[in-house]
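> example.struct
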């Protein structure tokens, strides 16, 4: 197919903005295009060489080098090109003008000079392949290769072709041809008409590669698309959630009862596994495999199927306490250049919540309970690789309790998910089958609190066999007892941890101390004696802690989100610890500040 035909279409598209007109133009283009190259036509039309997730390098050609390439192609000094560029304001138009002035392509000129009438035409495939080579040229000497390839292409181009070659390389081909218009055009060109759009769209949602879908349509017709299944290595467009702020309404919307899961605050990962190969795609379908060699290894090890596509949230964690860490921690991993250092500094865990494909079977057409059942059967749990924490409920109070527990443990909220007969995986769609319930506030804990250690948990990893986490309580003068507020495992130095056991040895007792009120059962109970200063992200409500029980909300106490140890307060007796009244006051002040900020 002549490249000229494609650029004439691009030129026509550039002059219109109505979607219906664009669709008509695309239908004609697609019908004229040989099926074996239609994928390339679709990519080029969008100014690309392939879908974004394919990790094709950028052209890597700065404006300055593009000017060099133009100068080389038209044998004009760079200064002259610069001046023309300033005058015309568009390097594409500069190249177009220079080609016209040269009387069409250089080669055409040469051919007519040597007396040949036939003019060589650039083909779509030739241009695509050359541009691909430009993008792939990397490293030493690549700059010259890129310049030579581009100038070679320009010197064979017709004026309009030159304009679009430059625009594609500059990333300025903004014709406004969205995916939706391409899907419409494919349905009309190769199906019965727009009524076939849903089947084309479904296939695209399952295999997010427009060129690939266009090729199937053109070579086999739209009908076969209804049999398209997900394919490992081609990302599936993710299912998205609606948002509501009332548990009663949420449960009603999802059909009375459903799964309520922790909504983790990390990065969504769509993990594809085929034998020993693993690919990870982000929420926006970028290939993020290189960011997570540890997740790749977990998937290789713990997915017990030959081929599978699972979804989960990748979250920063404290490997010794397995506590969730805030989203900002995960971002620290992204900012580091050396992934192996980043992996050590910001360890992650994966919380799986869906299974979309396994060993040839498309699970997106199954209900959520069916998908979860298979998911649980094909994944092995490990410390850093588990199914997302969930309950199944129809009770708004249980829902709310679970939400508070999720937030106090560092999750962002919960996701409620329908489990009825129609609870399929709607790839690429936002709907009421999934509803997110998040804290609609972000507050800050300004003051520190002094809490008493009443119990200890053994750590893992580096902290194996040592006390790694403490159960902390506030003082209730009314009942002269200690009521738990949080577990704290962050903020201790290695030295603190080394000394922890000997520090608490004199206080270890076999049973809960009679003055301690706790729902949690630590590995070791202590006599309330040691006071520590603690800071956290904010005060939250929690059904797991007894401090201020029922004071703010029935069935919940006050807790601290992301608590950190600051120092021991040996100058304080346990009865000098922060009291329940003080915590209620702090919580109310926090709420007030939020109200004021709104
Ligand atoms: P959206 O993704 O809905 O456009 P957003 O980008 O603001 O909005 P969120 O409001 O954070 O995203 O909600 C959706 C995201 O929540 C999912 O894309 C996923 O990354 C994350 N998530 C965390 N836990 C779960 C879970 N258990 N089930 C589904 N998604 C979860």
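> example.seq
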């Amino acid at each position: 197919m002549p490249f000229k035909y494609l650029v004439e279409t691009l030129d026509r598209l550039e002059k219109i903005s109505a979607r219906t007109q664009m669709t008509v133009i695309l239908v004609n283009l697609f019908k004229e295009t040989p099926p074996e190259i239609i994928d390339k036509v679709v990519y080029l039309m969008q100014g690309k060489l392939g879908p974004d997730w394919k990790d094709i390098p950028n052209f890597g050609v700065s404006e300055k080098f593009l000017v060099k390439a133009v100068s080389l192609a038209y044998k004009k000094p760079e200064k002259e090109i610069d001046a023309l560029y300033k005058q015309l304001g568009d390097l594409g138009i500069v190249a177009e003008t220079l080609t016209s002035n040269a009387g069409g392509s250089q080669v055409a000129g040469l051919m007519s000079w040597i007396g040949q009438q036939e003019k060589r035409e650039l083909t779509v495939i030739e241009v695509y392949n050359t541009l691909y080579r430009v993008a792939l040229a990397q490293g030493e000497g690549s700059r010259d290769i890129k310049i030579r390839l581009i100038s070679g292409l320009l010197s064979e181009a017709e004026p309009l072709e030159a304009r679009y070659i430059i625009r594609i390389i500059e990333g300025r081909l903004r014709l406004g041809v969205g995916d939706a218009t391409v899907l419409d055009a494919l349905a009309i060109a190769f199906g019965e008409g727009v009524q076939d759009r849903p089947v084309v769209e479904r296939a695209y949602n399952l295999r997010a590669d427009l060129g690939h879908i266009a090729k199937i349509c053109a070579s086999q017709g739209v009908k076969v698309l209804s049999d398209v299944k997900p394919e490992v290595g081609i990302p599936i467009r993710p299912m998205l959630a609606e948002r509501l702020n009332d548990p009663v309404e949420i449960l009603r919307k999802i059909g009375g009862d459903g799964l309520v899961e922790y909504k983790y605050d990390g990065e969504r990962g769509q993990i594809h596994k085929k034998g020993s190969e693993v690919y990870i795609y982000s929420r926006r379908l970028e290939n993020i495999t290189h960011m997570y060699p540890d997740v790749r290894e977990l998937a290789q090890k713990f997915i017990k199927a030959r081929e599978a596509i699972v979804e989960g949230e990748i979250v920063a964690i404290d490997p010794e306490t397995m506590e969730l860490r805030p989203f900002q921690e995960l971002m620290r991993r992204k900012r580091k250049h050396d992934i192996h250092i980043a992996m050590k500094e910001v360890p992650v865990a994966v919380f799986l919540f869906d299974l979309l494909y396994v060993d040839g079977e498309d699970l997106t057409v199954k209900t959520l309970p069916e998908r979860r059942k298979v998911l649980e059967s094909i994944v092995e749990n490990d410390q850093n690789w588990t199914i997302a924490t969930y309950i199944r409920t129809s009770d708004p109070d249980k829902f709310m309790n679970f939400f508070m527990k999720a937030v106090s443990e560092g999750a962002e909220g919960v996701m409620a998910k329908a489990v009825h007969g129609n609870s399929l995986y709607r790839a690429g769609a936002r709907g009421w089958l999934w509803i997110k319930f998040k804290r609609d506030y972000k507050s800050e804990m300004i003051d520190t609190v002094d809490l008493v250690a009443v119990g200890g948990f053994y750590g893992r990893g580096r902290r194996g066999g040592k006390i790694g986490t403490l159960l902390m309580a506030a003082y209730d003068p009314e009942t002269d007892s200690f009521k738990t507020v949080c577990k704290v495992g962050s903020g201790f130095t290695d030295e603190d941890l080394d000394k922890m056991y000997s520090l608490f040895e004199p206080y270890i007792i076999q049973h809960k101390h009679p003055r301690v009120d706790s729902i949690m059962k630590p590995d070791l109970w202590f006599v309330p004696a040691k006071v520590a200063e603690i800071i956290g992200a904010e005060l939250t409500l929690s059904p797991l802690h007894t401090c201020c029980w029922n004071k703010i909300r029935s069935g919940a106490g006050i807790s601290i989100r992301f608590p950190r140890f600051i120092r021991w307060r040996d100058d304080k007796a346990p009865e000098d610890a922060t009291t329940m009244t003080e915590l209620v006051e702090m919580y109310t002040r926090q709420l007030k500040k939020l109200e004021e900020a709104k």
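> remarks
The pocket of adenosine-5'-triphosphate is lined by residues 240-241, 261, 263-264, 268, 283, 313, 353, 388, 415, 436 (CB under 6 Å).
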